[in-house]
Design brief:
It is a single chain. Helices cover about 30% and strands about 30% of the residues. The protein is of the alpha+beta class and about 190 residues long. Strands 1-2-3-9-4-7 form a six-stranded antiparallel β-sheet. Strands 6-5-8 form a three-stranded antiparallel β-sheet, with no helix packed on it. Helix 2 crosses helix 3. The longest helix is centred in the N-terminal third of the chain and has 17 residues. The chain is elongated, with a radius of gyration of 23 Å.
Amino acid sequence: MTQGNGELDSLVRKRIRALRLAQGWSLEELAGRAKVSQSTLSRIENGQRRLALDQLVVLARALDTSLDQLVETATDDVVSHPTIDSVRGQMRWPIKAEPGMSVIRQRMTEPPPDKPSRMRAHPGREWLVVLSGTAILLLGDRRLRIETHQAAEFPTMLPHAIGADGGPCDILGIFDRDARRGHQRGEKT
């Protein structure tokens, strides 16, 4: 990495230091993990040593990140706008860092289905948090009550359904690609 690209150089150095501190590691600890001397690491963080690609690769691994994330400069499209499905009461945002993943906000007013045949199973994984109200998650043979600020994560190969309990509830769900596809197929039927 050349010194001519000063903004990127400074950004990468700040990220290395910030990631090290976020892990609670001293210079000595990160230097040991990256197999570089403590003085070398200190000079890298302080801009007194040229950044070399081979060192960045080693530091990225030691910091449990990727080289791409360490040098990424794109800040375009930081704010995203949802697509709105007013029929189902959903807002959906794609997650750019993980293509195929979606975040969905949904207001539920109906209880979960009372017939096990209405529960769905499909490949994937879901995570959800109840923003307000109380939800009931039917998961296989289990009936789980999820209250405001509580979350649930589960593999969607288990038959599942969710609904409101005692009044409307708002949930925010994160669906991996397979879970999202499973729900989209289910919505069409």
